[in-house]
C-alpha cells in the first residue's frame, strides 16, 4: 500500500510541466489534447473548457524580459488566465494595431483593428501565427525599451533573442503548412505575412519586408482571393473568398505618415560627417527645404489615391456580373492613370528643385508606396497572359526601391548613433 502511494506521488512529481493547451488544463496542470474549439479532455470529464488565450493577453501586466530569462522556449511566460472563450480583448487589438508599423510615428493609429482582430483570433489555434505574434511583441518591446536599436550585438536583450527565436519557429511552421496548401494553409500564410512585414520593419530590414509583400500579393492573386476575368467577358468568382485581404492591410500600413522626414546632409571630405547625417534645418540648402515641404503635399495626393483604391478593391470583392466588372475595369484604368500622373508630378518637382543630394527618405517611402498601389491595381480583375511579365517588372522595381530605402535607413541610424548590426531573417521560400 505504501509502495503504491509512493509510486503515485512519484508519477505526479515527474509530470511534465504544462506549457500549452487550453486554459483549464493548464490551471489543472494536466496534458491537454488541444482539440479546437474545445479540448476533449475537458468535455469528457464534464468541465468547462475556457479556450486558448491570446498571446497578447498578458502583455500589459507581465514584462517580457522576466518571461524570457534563461532562454525560455515558445509559450513559456504565458501564465494561466481565464479569458472569455474566443473573445479578443480591445486593448490587445489596439496594441497589435500600433505594433504593425514602425515606419510611422509611434502614436499614429493605422485603422487596422479588423486585421489585428483576425490575427489574434487565428493565433489562438494556429501555431505559426501565434509564434509570429510573440516575435513581434518581443521585438517591439526591445525596440521601445532599448531605443531604435542597440549599438552592438553585445547589448542585444533577451527580448530581442526571444523575438528572433519565435520568428524562426513561425517561418518553419509556415513552410511546413505551405508544403500542401489548402484554404487554412493559405489563410495562415497571409496572416503570417502581415506579421512578418511588421517584424521586418521593426528590424529595419526593408529588402526582406518587400519580399514578404511580393510573395503575399502573389499568393492572393494566384489563388484568386477576389473575383476576376480569366478571359474576355468571362468572370469567375473568388476561389478562396475567405482569405485575408493582405493588399488592404499593406495599403493601410503605408498610407500612414513617415517618421523619416528629414533630408540628408552633404558628405564632409574629412569623413567626420556621413553623407546621410542630418543637419539643422537652418543649415539646409533652400532646395532641400523645398523638397521637404513638397513631400507632405505629395503624400496627401497619394493617400487620396490609396483611399480610392481601397474603395475599388471593396467593389471588386463584391462583383457578381460581367457588366459591373467591365465598369470596374474603367475605374481601375483611371486609378492607374492617377498614379502615373502622381509620379510625373514628383519627378517634375524634383527636377525644378534640382537638389544635388539624395532625396529625403520620406520621398523614397512614397515611391515604395506608389509601386505597391500600382502592383495591387494591376493584379485586380486581371489574369491575362501578359500580366505576370508586367508584375515581375514592377516587383523588381519595388525590390530595388526597398533595397535603397534599407540602405538609407541604415545610414540614418548609423549617423544617429543607433546602428545595431542586426542581420536579416530569410523569407519563406
Task: Summarize it.
58% of the residues lie in helices and 2% in strands. The chain is mainly α.
Model description:
It contains 15 helices and two strands. The longest helix has 33 residues, at 286-318. The protein has one domain. Strands 1-2 form a two-stranded antiparallel sheet. 58% of the residues lie in helices and 2% in strands. The protein is mainly α and 429 residues long.
Shape: globular
Gyration radius, to the nearest Å?
A: 25 Å
Strand portion: under 5%
Strand order of the biggest β-sheet? 1-2
Number of helices: 15
InterPro entries: Transcr_Regulatory_Proteins, Zn2-C6_fun-type_DNA-bd_sf, Zn2Cys6_DnaBD
Domain Zn(2)-C6 fungal-type: 21-49
Keywords: DNA-binding, Metal-binding, Nucleus, Transcription, Transcription regulation, Zinc
Protein name: Zn(2)-C6 fungal-type domain-containing protein
List keywords for this structure.
two-stranded antiparallel ribbon, disordered C terminus, 429 residues, 2% strand, single chain, zinc ion binding, mainly alpha, 15 helices
Amino acid at each position: 500500500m505504501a509502495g503504491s502511494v509512493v509510486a503515485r506521488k512519484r508519477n505526479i512529481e515527474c509530470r511534465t510541466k504544462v506549457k500549452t493547451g487550453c486554459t483549464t488544463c493548464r490551471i489543472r496542470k494536466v496534458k491537454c489534447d488541444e482539440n479546437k474549439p474545445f479540448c476533449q479532455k475537458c468535455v469528457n470529464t464534464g468541465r468547462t473548457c475556457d479556450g486558448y488565450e491570446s498571446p497578447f493577453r498578458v502583455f500589459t501586466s507581465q514584462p517580457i524580459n522576466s518571461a524570457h530569462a534563461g532562454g525560455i522556449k515558445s509559450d513559456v511566460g504565458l501564465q494561466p488566465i481565464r479569458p472569455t472563450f474566443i473573445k479578443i480583448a480591445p486593448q490587445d487589438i489596439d496594441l497589435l494595431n500600433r505594433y504593425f508599423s514602425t515606419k510611422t510615428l509611434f502614436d499614429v493609429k493605422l485603422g487596422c483593428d479588423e486585421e489585428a482582430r483576425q490575427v489574434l483570433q487565428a493565433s489562438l489555434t494556429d501555431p505559426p501565427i501565434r509564434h509570429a505574434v510573440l516575435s513581434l511583441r518581443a521585438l517591439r518591446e526591445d525596440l521601445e525599451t532599448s531605443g531604435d536599436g542597440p549599438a552592438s550585438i553585445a547589448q542585444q536583450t533577451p527580448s530581442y533573442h526571444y523575438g528572433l527565436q519565435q520568428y524562426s519557429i513561425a517561418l518553419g511552421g509556415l513552410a511546413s503548412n505551405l508544403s500542401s496548401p489548402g484554404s487554412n494553409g493559405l489563410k495562415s500564410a497571409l496572416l503570417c505575412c502581415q506579421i512578418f512585414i511588421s517584424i521586418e520593419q521593426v528590424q529595419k530590414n526593408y529588402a526582406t519586408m518587400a519580399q514578404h509583400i511580393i510573395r503575399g500579393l502573389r499568393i492572393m492573386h494566384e489563388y484568386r482571393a477576389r473575383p476576376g476575368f480569366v478571359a474576355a467577358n468571362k468572370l469567375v468568382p473568388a476561389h478562396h473568398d475567405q482569405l485575408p485581404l493582405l493588399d488592404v492591410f499593406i495599403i493601410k500600413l503605408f498610407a500612414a505618415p513617415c517618421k523619416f522626414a528629414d533630408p540628408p546632409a552633404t558628405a564632409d571630405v574629412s569623413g567626420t560627417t556621413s553623407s546621410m547625417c542630418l543637419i539643422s534645418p537652418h543649415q539646409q540648402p533652400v532646395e532641400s527645404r523645398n523638397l521637404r515641404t513638397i513631400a507632405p503635399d505629395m503624400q496627401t495626393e497619394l493617400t487620396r489615391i490609396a483611399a480610392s483604391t481601397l474603395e475599388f478593391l471593396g467593389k471588386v470583392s463584391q462583383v457578381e456580373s460581367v457588366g459591373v466588372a467591365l465598369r470596374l475595369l474603367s475605374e481601375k484604368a483611371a486609378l492607374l492613370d492617377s498614379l502615373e500622373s502622381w509620379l510625373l508630378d514628383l519627378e517634375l518637382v524634383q527636377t525644378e528643385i534640382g537638389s544635388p543630394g539624395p532625396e529625403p527618405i520620406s520621398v523614397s517611402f512614397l515611391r515604395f508606396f506608389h509601386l505597391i498601389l500600382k502592383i495591387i491595381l494591376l493584379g485586380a480583375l486581371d489574369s491575362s497572359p501578359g500580366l505576370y511579365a508586367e508584375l515581375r517588372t514592377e516587383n523588381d522595381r519595388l525590390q530595388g526601391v526597398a533595397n535603397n530605402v534599407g540602405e538609407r535607413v541604415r545610414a540614418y541610424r548609423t549617423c544617429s548613433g543607433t546602428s545595431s548590426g542586426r542581420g536579416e531573417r530569410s523569407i519563406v521560400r
